[in-house]
């Protein structure tokens, strides 16, 4: 056998990676948070940036700068969020982060009275400190995306990961089937499956699982106890466990009831909702971000701006820079703060405009829903809306996260309008949500002494021109919380 030698060496390798700047992380956060949380995010920035002023919500009066002070024209145009140029239609596509940064750098260098400078390591450290000084708690989505950012993911897997994280419920469990997510996003199922497998390795333990049993088993597996008695009970007898059938579990496992009780106590020490430790409010009040209403036959969209403070750059600090009486350190600090303030104001406006445009396209594509109700919801993917709006689909995903639309038929999560579906014999597209509604209607009007079986429901739907498998009907029935036909029969 020939000998094998080992040694150490140094190698250089060039690679490219995408690193989000602090300001872009802030913009992504502003885009993603719900209306109710946006004010908290903005207030945190107001506390750390003295150059931003919050204006009264009513009776706003803009104080003019003194005549002996020269204020740059660009800053004057950025005074108030509500007074910005409404003709500006460009969208902030967060898939082009570096281009946006270059644009803002160019805008800043072109600002009258402000010269370009080379930032030292000390300047960068100070700047990072201010951007890291947010008082709001890290959300579950942010925590998971930070882990995804340091993973070596292909583009498809990264996109799939973003959608999976956005589909987690408050407990941290996955609320959608992987196949549905693949259909919804147009991504390969293999990419969605790879992202799901990786997500389950993220912190906290048990995140991204599709059921409570899987979540608890994952936590046991991390301790090397997946094949222990608690693991066997969770895997093979979960339904009996939820009903506390201890004698029956003991009999099926061939063990003493005391052993079962000890296993249940160990299961009780696991976390059934690993995502809740990141939730800011477990009793959240749902506030619609957008209202869509019919006004004399015309559909109108109203953005909820009640929780968005009106901001402007302080005249006082702009005048201090314009007078030129500050030392270099003071001037550099204020310029950086003003620049960050402008970016904040622009990010808020971009957020509102992106949400408005997405809502408008949802209204166009789901007009039958708004006119007639839930049964007329059509299949729709985020890719379709992204192509129309002219942004990346991840921007759409972030823009609709945690947000709600108030409609004539109730308040709905934005994601409700994005659903795969079926092609009816008539050629019309029918969403799976509408199919569920049809199944519910058929069950509501069935003969209670002879309820419809899943196969009979298949036949009824086929009569409506919708071809669907029996197992799919069974899945939808279970998701509706409806028992099988043999358990629905009324024997009276």
Q: What are its keywords?
A:
492 residues, alpha+beta, Arc Repressor Mutant, subunit A, four-stranded mixed β-sheet, 23 helices, 8 strands, 50% helix, 7% strand
Description:
The chain is of the alpha+beta class and about 500 residues long. Among the domains are: about 290-305 and about 355-415, Orthogonal Bundle (Arc Repressor Mutant, subunit A), CATH 1.10.10; about 420-490, Orthogonal Bundle (Arc Repressor Mutant, subunit A). About 50% of the residues lie in helices and about 5% in strands. The protein has 23 helices and eight strands. The chain has helices at about 20-30, 35-50, 75, 95-110, 120-130, 140-150, 155-165, 180-185, 190-200, 210-220, 230-235, 240, 245-255, 255-270, 315-325, 330-365, 365-370, 380-390, 395-400, 430-445, 455-465, 470-480, 485-490, and strands at about 50-55, 290-295, 300-305, 310-315, 405, 410-415, 420-425, 430. The strands form three sheets. It has a four-stranded mixed β-sheet with strand order 3-2-5-6, covered by helices on one side. A two-stranded antiparallel ribbon has the order 1-4. Strands 7-8 form a two-stranded antiparallel ribbon. Helix 7 packs across helix 9.
């Amino acid at each position: 056998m020939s000998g094998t030698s080992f040694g150490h060496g140094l190698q250089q390798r060039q690679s490219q990676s995408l690193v989000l700047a602090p300001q872009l992380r802030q913009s992504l956060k502003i885009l993603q948070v719900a209306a109710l949380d946006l004010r908290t995010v903005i207030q945190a920035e107001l506390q750390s940036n003295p150059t931003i002023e919050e204006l009264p919500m009513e009776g706003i009066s803009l104080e003019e700068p003194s005549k002996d002070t020269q204020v740059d024209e660009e800053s004057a145009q950025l005074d108030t969020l509500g007074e910005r140029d409404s003709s500006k239609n460009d969208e902030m596509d967060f898939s082009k982060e570096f281009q946006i940064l270059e644009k803002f750098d160019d805008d800043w260098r072109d600002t009258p009275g402000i010269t370009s400078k080379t930032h030292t390591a000390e300047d960068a450290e100070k700047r990072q400190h201010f951007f890291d000084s947010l008082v709001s708690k890290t959300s579950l989505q942010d925590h998971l995306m930070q882990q995804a950012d340091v993973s070596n993911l292909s583009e498809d897997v990264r996109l799939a990961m973003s959608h999976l994280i956005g589909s987690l419920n408050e407990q941290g469990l996955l609320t959608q089937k992987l196949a549905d997510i693949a259909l919804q996003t147009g991504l390969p199922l293999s990419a969605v499956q790879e992202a799901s497998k990786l997500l389950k390795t993220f912190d906290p333990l048990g995140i991204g699982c599709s059921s409570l049993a899987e979540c608890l088993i994952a936590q046991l597996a991390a301790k090397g106890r997946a094949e222990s008695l608690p693991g066997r009970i969770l895997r093979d007898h979960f339904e009996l466990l939820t009903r506390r059938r201890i004698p029956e579990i003991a009999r099926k496992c061939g063990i003493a009831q005391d052993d079962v009780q000890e296993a249940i106590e160990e299961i009780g020490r696991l976390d059934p909702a690993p995502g809740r430790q990141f939730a800011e409010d477990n009793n959240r009040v749902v506030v619609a971000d957008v209202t869509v209403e019919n006004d004399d036959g015309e559909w109108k969209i109203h953005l909820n701006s009640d929780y968005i403070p009106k901001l402007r750059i302080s005249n006082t600090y702009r005048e201090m820079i314009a007078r030129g009486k500050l030392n270099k350190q003071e001037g550099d600090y204020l310029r950086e703060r003003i620049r960050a303030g402008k970016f904040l104001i622009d990010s808020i406006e971009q957020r509102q405009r992106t949400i408005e445009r997405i809502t408008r396209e949802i209204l166009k594509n789901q007009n039958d829903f708004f006119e007639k109700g839930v049964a007329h919801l059509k299949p729709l993917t985020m890719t379709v809306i992204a192509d129309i709006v002219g942004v990346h689909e991840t921007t759409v995903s972030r823009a609709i996260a945690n947000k709600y639309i108030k409609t004539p038929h109730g308040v709905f999560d934005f994601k409700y309008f994005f659903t795969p579906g079926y092609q009816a014999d008539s050629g019309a597209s029918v969403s799976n949500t509408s199919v569920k509604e049809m199944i519910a209607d058929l069950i509501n009007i069935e003969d209670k002494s002879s309820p419809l079986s899943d196969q009979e429901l298949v036949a009824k739907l086929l009569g409506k021109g919708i071809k669907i498998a029996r197992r799919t009907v069974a899945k939808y029935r279970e998701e509706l919380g409806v028992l099988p036909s043999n358990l629905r029969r009324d024997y009276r």
